[in-house]
């Protein structure tokens, strides 16, 4: 197919440019997103043809920005299970409940998707050195995919992030550094070294691949549900590239004529104390934000992004979807992780936050009895384990020991 017809469109001013790699900022300050020739794709690809394809996110190749199939860098990402939660449905005032098991991706989080696409583009462009500011999972994913592609990876991670995820980066051979600061401080280090180091910054919205890769979550949801989207998606939001990507997926599916009906309402969940999406939506609706007081220190998770690169785009997307955002206290997130664990699902704090958001949405009545709801379990619990926080079962030698407990 003719990839020269791929373009970039500014999400703010709608300016359209020929596709070029890197620098996704428009002159107006908006974010450039990849725009495909949907008519051409519709003439060559059918839903029926997809069924035959390999169960990976690359089954949607025509809707991904890599031109040369040889440059695809894959570790088996995507096509994660969508698990129906029958027992929970019976207990909650909603119609259907599903969990998208993103923790089953090759690097234990959905960041695999974005970096499979981003690193493929790096390979296609002949880039040999890439850097990322990250709360952990993006760094781990860059490290793995760069290792697969033979590209040097540089990871800059706030020093309080989960030690096992930092270890994962060094295991994959990435040059790994702890930063005394937050994710935007890590980003500033990469920007400062750009000319001298010649690395490409693959941070959120810096290049086209990550949004496009995360878009496949939306494509998969549609395909796995028989081309009918759920009413509500509950998503743990940091930089928001998943929200931007999934919305883009839904619009592309509409343009292809593959789905109809209303699109899902997004519910962004965040942790109290770092809640720019919650505060931003409140400010736009001219409600005074009920921001948690400064004493509250948010945990180092993928949701802790105080300055999202294009907050306006995230907010307008959530608004267009008819969605909302909610900030949850750390204790509710911790007990949600235990609830999911008791249902056999290993959930990271981010994934658990979607369960806490579900309960809150049921309590407040925002979720309706007719709603079908999808939760995104974006990573698994073990990546966040610290030796200090591990529960130790009792040690015994015999059944008699067991009886005497
Ligand atoms: C990065 C990350 C998020 C936030 O995703 P965005 O699409 O950047 O908002 C949520 N959960 C986990 C586990 C992450 O690693």
Automatic annotation (TrEMBL):
InterPro entries: Ser/Thr_Dehydratase, TrpB-like_PALP, TrpB-like_PALP_sf. One of its GO terms (molecular function) is threonine synthase activity. Keywords: Lyase, Pyridoxal phosphate. Its cofactor is pyridoxal 5'-phosphate. The keyword Lyase applies. It is an enzyme of class 4 (lyase). Its EC number is 4.2.3.1. It comes from the Bacteria. Residues 73-378 form the Tryptophan synthase beta chain-like PALP domain. This is Threonine synthase. It comes from Paenibacillus aestuarii.
């Amino acid at each position: 197919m003719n990839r020269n017809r791929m373009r970039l469109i500014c999400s703010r001013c709608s300016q359209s440019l020929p596709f070029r790699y890197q620098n996704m900022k428009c002159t107006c300050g908006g974010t450039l997103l990849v725009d495909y020739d949907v008519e051409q794709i519709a003439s060559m690809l059918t839903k029926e043809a997809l069924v035959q394809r390999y169960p990976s996110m690359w089954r949607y190749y025509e809707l991904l920005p890599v031109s040369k199939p040889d440059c695809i860098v894959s570790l088996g990402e995507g096509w994660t299970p969508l698990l129906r939660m029958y027992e929970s449905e019976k207990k909650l005032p909603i119609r259907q409940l599903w969990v998208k098991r993103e923790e089953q991706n090759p690097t234990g989080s959905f960041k695999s998707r974005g970096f499979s696409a981003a690193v493929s583009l790096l390979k296609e462009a002949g880039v040999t050195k890439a850097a990322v500011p990250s709360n952990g999972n993006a760094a781990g994913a860059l490290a793995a995919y760069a290792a697969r592609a033979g590209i040097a990876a540089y990871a800059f991670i706030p020093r309080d992030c989960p030690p096992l995820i930092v270890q994962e980066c060094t295991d994959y051979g990435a040059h790994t550094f702890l930063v005394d600061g937050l994710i935007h401080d890590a980003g500033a280090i990469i920007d400062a070294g750009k000319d001298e180091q010649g690395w490409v910054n693959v941070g959120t919205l810096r290049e086209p691949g990550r949004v496009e890769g995360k878009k496949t979550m939306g494509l998969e949801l549609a395909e796995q549900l028989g081309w009918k989207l759920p009413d509500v998606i509950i998503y743990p939001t940091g930089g928001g590239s998943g929200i931007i990507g999934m919305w883009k997926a839904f619009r592309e599916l509409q343009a292809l004529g593959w789905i109809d009906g209303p699109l899902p309402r997004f519910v962004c969940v965040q942790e109290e104390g770092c809640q720019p999406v919650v505060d931003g939506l409140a400010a736009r609706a001219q409600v005074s934000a009920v921001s948690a007081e400064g004493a509250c220190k948010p945990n180092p998770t993928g949701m802790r992004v105080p300055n999202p690169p294009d907050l306006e785009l995230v907010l307008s997307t959530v608004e267009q979807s008819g969605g909302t955002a909610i900030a949850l206290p750390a204790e509710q997130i911790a007990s949600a992780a235990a609830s999911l664990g008791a249902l056999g699902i290993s959930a990271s704090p981010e994934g658990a936050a979607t369960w806490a958001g579900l309960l809150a949405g049921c309590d407040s009545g925002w979720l309706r009895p007719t709603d079908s709801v999808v939760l995104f379990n974006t990573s698994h619990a073990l990546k966040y384990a610290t030796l200090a926080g591990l529960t130790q079962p009792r040690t015994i030698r015999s059944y008699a020991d067991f009886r005497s407990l």
